[in-house]
Amino acid sequence: MISSLQDKTTLRNGINMPWLGLGVFKVAEGPELVNAVKFAIARGYRSIDTAAIYENEAGVGQGIREGLKEAGIPREELFVTSKVWNADLGYETTLAAYETSLKKLGLEYLDLYLIHWPVAGKFNEAWRALETLYKAGKVKAIGVSNFQVHHLEDLMQDAEIKPMVNQVEYHPRLTQTEVQAFCREHGIQMEAWSPLMQGQLLDHPALREIAGKYGKSVAQVIIRWDLQNGVVTIPKSTTEHRIAENAAVFDFELSPEDMERIGALNKNLRVGPDPDNFDF
Predict the structure, then answer these.
(1) Which residues are named in the active-site annotation (predicted)?
(2) Is position 279 within any domain?
């Protein structure tokens, strides 16, 4: 049982990645962002996830520096993720994009760098760049985001190094069972973005009933469901009480029956783009 905010999964290359982190999807630069990152670190979060396209890497970096200093925590205890955007996919452009992200964040390295979307004809060269960064010791782990099984198969045909993480939209309405099975088979850690379906699940009757049974919020139940399914999760929030609430999921465990009941809510519904039909 995953029993604390400091618990980690071990990626295929031996790097430890926290099971729960803070997502900052398109949170605007400014005090709200900086304070959210600082508060998360103060409350025990050890994973922060951003991306070049979110246009907030500078604020995330400020929050990290101030948060680590105030908490007296070394950089090495924090797991920081960013992603290369579609316009920069390619070998040299991906290498340059990585350096740009580092500069904006004010960091010497990233713990995880991801290809954000599987742009056909471009992600293989971008992956070669990630392999170069990894082999040079400039990033601790490399992976992808929003890759379906056929994208992963395509990538892995020519890759020297398998992706260590696949971050995908994942929630009770989109359980991605085929992707999850493939990732497990190949030692790729699955990670959930939009685990709460951008709030659309918070009033679902079945989820509210289950939450009441455990004396928890619907958000806490969904996050716990993710973790018990072996999926790293990064719920987005900028409010202190929500950041704290999202982390209060380690004092209960969902029964097998409730896990199955939540999984049965799947309708293959997305709130984000379909990776196979995304207008890049």
Answers:
(1) 54 (proton donor)
(2) no
How far apart (Å, rounded) are the C-alpha atoms in residues 201 and 171?
A: 9
The answer to whether residue 270 is domain-embedded is no
Count of the separate structural domains present in the chain: 1
In a domain, 245, yes or no: yes
How many other C-beta atoms can be found within 10 angstroms of the C-beta atom of residue 42? 15
Q: Are 265 and 221 in contact (CB under 8 A)?
A: no
- What is the extent of the structural domain holding 118? 8-263
Distance CA 152, CA 19 (A): 22
Pick the catalytic residue from 45, 54, 113, 134.
54
Confirm whether residue 241 is marked as ligand binding: no
- Contact at 8 Å (CB) between 108 and 102? yes
CATH number at 76 reads 3.20.20.100
Q: Is residue 278 part of a domain?
A: no
Does 54 participate in catalysis according to the annotation?
yes
Q: Is the pTM of this model over 0.90?
A: yes
Q: Are 110 and 81 in contact (CB under 8 A)?
A: yes
